[in-house]
Amino acid sequence: MRLITELPDPFLLKNGQRVASIEDWQQRREEIKDMMLNIQYGTMPGAPEAVSTTTLETETLDSGETREKLRLEFTPNKHHPNLTFGVDVTVWRPSEKAITKRKETINGFGKNGLPALIYVGDKKFETLLNNGYMMICYENNQLEPMEMGNAIVGPARTAYQELEPDAHSWGSISIWAWGGLRMLEYALSLPEVDNDQIMISGHSRNGKTALLAGALDDRIALVNPAGSGCAGAGSYLALGEKCEDLAALTSRERWWAWAHPNFEKWVGNEEELPFDQHFLMSLVAPRPLLRTEGTTDEWANPEGTCVSFLATEPIYQCLNVPDRNGIYFHEGGHTHTEEDATALVAFADAHFFQVPSTTNFKTLLRDKAEFPTAFSWANPI
What we know:
The chain is α/β, with parallel strands linked by helices. It has one domain (about 1-370): Rossmann fold, CATH 3.40.50. The protein has ten helices and eleven strands. The chain has helices at about 20-40, 95-105, 125-130, 155-165, 170-190, 205-215, 245-250, 275-280, 300-320, 340-355; strands at about 1-5, 50-60, 65-75, 85-95, 115-120, 135-140, 195-205, 220-225, 240, 290-295, 325-330. The strands form two sheets. It has a nine-stranded mixed beta sheet, with helices on both faces. It has a two-stranded antiparallel ribbon with strand order 1-9. Helix 3 (about 125-130) links the parallel strand 5 and strand 6.
């Protein structure tokens, strides 16, 4: 692992003073949010003025689970009703048998509705459904297509550009995260969902998306980026030998359109960045945050993710919730597995229902001594 420089101090306010109280930290959170959007991801608009929902198909499987396919159409401005775009959504509901079993074995389960996972992309985790969790999956590529080296302006950006020319600097990750926040609002509208138990997850670029969306909205109760790497849970300053770095991410032959259009200027100047990714993850605190990673997923920088996890620890410790900062490794590479889902359920059960877990969510890729564990700026409060 190569460490370019010590990870920067998240507790240093713009005025040069250091955070000394919870009130100071709230101010610092807003500063960090502004930095992350204006430097790395690009700014995004608020909610559209109108959203319509059309049910396309509903199916009950032999297992008792139900699958509902929907189309959500967004109208940014009611005065321009023809300027719309949409996204396909799949809602998975657990069987009544699974719900009943959980209610019988876990105190408080389902009391105010079911826990639900917003998933960036299209995937079904049987582990979640078997444990009574709902899934709300959205086709984020429909908001902004992805094509290597060829930035395609998608319908979301097209609509807002016509309404508010050059008002937003959002790259693809911000656009996809904007969609995640719309899924949050949809989830909050469902009577069967517990509004205090809504999670978000995604894998790879969609893990970057889930982390950004979860960092920006405190109504998301638990955040789970998976294999998210560069511009996700991985560090820009602590780099594994074969990992993606800022130069690779912003290459014109690759994914430069994912980030703020000016983010590439930091290539070769990473030590001058006013943040690293533990800043973004600090916005999730004090809510539960679980990174799920693969032990051999070298491109996603599992070593750097360990370092950024360790750099996030002092923030959770200052807020007196160290157990809410977690990391989990499955054996293998760049996949999002049922094992990861099992870890997520255990983590969520522990924080939503106080169910003791036998999983250690502080276990790193290698022995902790191989990573920087002490930061000069830790524990200001």
